[in-house]
Amino acid sequence: MSIDRLLSTMAASGGMSFSNNFIVKFLNPPSGLTRIPNEIEGVAGTSDYFEMFCTEAQLPNTNTAQGQTNGIYVGSGSVNYPHTRVFTEFQLGFMCDANMTALKYLQDWVDLIFSGDVNYGEQGENRSGLSYTSMQSNAFGQTNSYPENRNIRLKYRDDYVCDIAITKTETGPNSSAERASITYVLEKAYPYAIDAIPLQFGSSQITQVTAQFSYMRHHVIKNDITGPIFPGTEGLLV
Q1: Is the dihedral of CA 116, 118, 122, 125 positive or negative?
Q2: Which of 25, 37, 46, 72, by CA, is between 20 and 30 Å from 210?
Q3: 15 Cβ neighbours under 8 A, 6+ residues apart
Q4: Phi, psi of 52 (to 5 degrees)
Q5: Which spans in the chain are helix H?
Q6: What is the C-alpha separation between 34 and 105, in angstroms, rounded?
Q7: Strand 63-70 with 78-86, pairing
Q8: Residue 144 gets which letter from DSSP?
Q9: Which tens digits make up the pLDDT trace of 94-137?
Q10: Phi/psi at 77 (nearest 5 deg)?
Q11: pTM of the predicted structure, to 2 decimals
């Protein structure tokens, strides 16, 4: 195979795909969560905020559970067959601003799941304008505010799940995300774990938070980007 043939084949398919070009959207964030403030200039709300600050995503895998059947043909032994689609977890990572907005939102999301008790629940407190000293005083003062024998009750699933769309994009002539080749829509997703965030003295680095998400199932929207992009269709999936 010649180099010219390889290059022409790549060009006919729109070039090569690069892993650092993607868009993550929270399509319908839980109504019980505080929205990202709309007064942030240029940010329409929660979905746009996390689209901008998402630094890590995964296109989910496709898997099946299999069974075995015997005796199809004499001497053939066991033959595998698929019987159930299996959907595993996925991971999203976000940069944190100085207000730790992404971490606070994810923490509130997990707390919302366990906030079914009307008296206490497991949701933290949201304050504003406190100094470090006031924060410490509140922390020490809250030691006995939550009784040890308090109940932990869960919300109904529909109260805390959200559909998430992960779109693989490529650079186009007009924008860095003009060509969208495939979108995975993950249905009924929620964060079940927030990874520990390392903090250490030394060189300055942007703080990042990573969360593990579970979901019910996903469906895929595939788009051929080798042809022309028709006007008015750029925003259909976002």
Answers
A1: positive
A2: 37
A3: 170
A4: -75, -35
A5: 3-12, 46-53, 101-113, 132-141
A6: 8
A7: antiparallel
A8: T
A9: 999 998 989 999 999 998 898 876 666 567 777 788 888 888 77
A10: 75, -150
A11: 0.83
